[in-house]
Design brief:
- With 333 residues, the chain is α+β, with helices and mostly antiparallel strands.
- The chain has eleven helices and twelve strands.
- The strands form two sheets. A six-stranded antiparallel β-barrel has the order 1-2-3-6-5-4. The protein has a six-stranded antiparallel barrel with strand order 7-8-9-12-11-10.
- α6 runs antiparallel to α7, α8 packs across α9 and α9 packs antiparallel against α10.
- The N and C termini lie far apart (54 Å).
- The N terminus is likely disordered.
């Protein structure tokens, strides 16, 4: 057994944010994270990450298993044979039922009560080692009975299916997809989908075939995905078109109103933008980005009381964004 060595190595790979995570909890969750492997027809090795969610059961992303007819689970020097697979292909979620393994399952959390700014920890296999990356929740998108989680905990090749945890070590979801480019958005599918799939008994065959929701043509993707690249690329005309459709389809979605405000502000429509940001905050008073932009407008209008209020509120949601806001508007402490 080489687990102590592996754990020591993983500690060396902890990010700055991850160091704040309780180390006892980190050790407990670390030993429930596994590597999912399989050979493709050409003899190449496909691999990803997974997490133990039940007795001899591992959750991972289905796209990890698309190129292999024979897969297995491993941790350190120990390998475990795959006995069956349950698949929710559209949601890119697979449950691997394996031979007897000693790892404990992680406690299940919930995305229902999460909010922007919540600290998370991601543990996955990438770049030749097991890495722990800390970060914060940047956005939450209600979708099919759970909340898709966007974080700034970056992940790379090999980390598909890696778990993200809250500060108490509860599983929140699996890292699954990202937008193209270096300045990317990183998304995790919600733990609720895992719990739902555990209630089903249908088995799937390897290799897994079929398209996930995030791989659909752009016009068929969820609105939060349609707006991602226009937002990242400052394509405000496209962002306006998408966000207008989003607000019409989901008028009680704070993210939709925020994106509409971003597009309007980018197109030189400040009055309309402020109204949209106000609508976003009416639906979610802790929407950090909408608060930020509202505070910037207040600063331009010389409303220092409103600026100070935004600064204090932001500090309780996202300290990094609050510091950036204070610098932007030159708030005097």
């Amino acid at each position: 057994m080489r687990r102590p060595t592996i754990f020591a190595l993983s500690l060396l790979l902890l990010s700055q944010h991850a160091l704040a995570f309780d180390q006892a909890l980190y050790m407990k969750t670390f030993f429930s994270v596994v590597l999912v492997r399989g050979y493709d027809d050409a003899g190449g090795l496909a691999y990803g990450s997974g997490v133990v969610v039940g007795p001899n059961q591992v959750a991972t992303d289905c796209h990890v298993l698309r190129r292999t007819a024979k897969a297995w689970v491993s941790q350190g020097d120990d390998a475990y044979r795959l006995e069956s697979v349950q698949a929710d292909i559209f949601h890119d979620l697979c449950l691997l039922n394996v031979e007897t393994m000693p790892m404990a399952s992680v406690p299940m959390g919930s995305t229902a009560s999460l909010s922007k700014g919540t600290h998370v920890l991601s543990i996955g296999n990438s770049d030749g080692g097991t890495r722990a990356i800390g970060g914060q929740i940047k956005s939450l998108y209600p979708f099919d009975g759970g909340n898709i989680i966007r974080t700034n905990a970056r992940f790379t090749l090999g980390a598909s299916g890696s778990p993200i945890f809250d500060d108490n070590g509860n599983l929140l979801g699996l890292n699954t997809f990202k937008t193209p480019g270096s300045n990317a958005y990183f998304y995790a599918i919600p733990v609720e989908w895992i719990i739902n799939l555990q209630k089903k008994t249908e088995k799937a065959e390897l290799p897994i075939k079929g398209q996930a929701f995030w791989e659909l043509p752009d016009i068929d993707k969820p609105f939060f995905m349609q707006m991602a690249l226009p937002h990242l690329n400052d394509d405000f005309a496209k962002l306006l078109e998408v966000s207008q459709r989003w607000v019409k389809a989901e008028p009680t979605n704070a993210e939709a109103w925020y994106e509409l405000g971003s597009a309007q502000e980018g197109l030189g429509q400040p009055d309309e933008a402020q109204k949209s940001y106000t609508s976003a905050l009416a639906l979610n008073p802790r929407h950090a980005e909408a608060l930020y932009r509202t505070g910037v407008f207040a600063s331009r209008h010389g409303d220092q009381a409103a600026v100070q209020k935004v600064s204090v509120t932001l500090a309780g949601i996202d300290s990094a964004l609050a510091a950036d806001f204070d610098k932007t508007v030159a708030v005097k402490q």
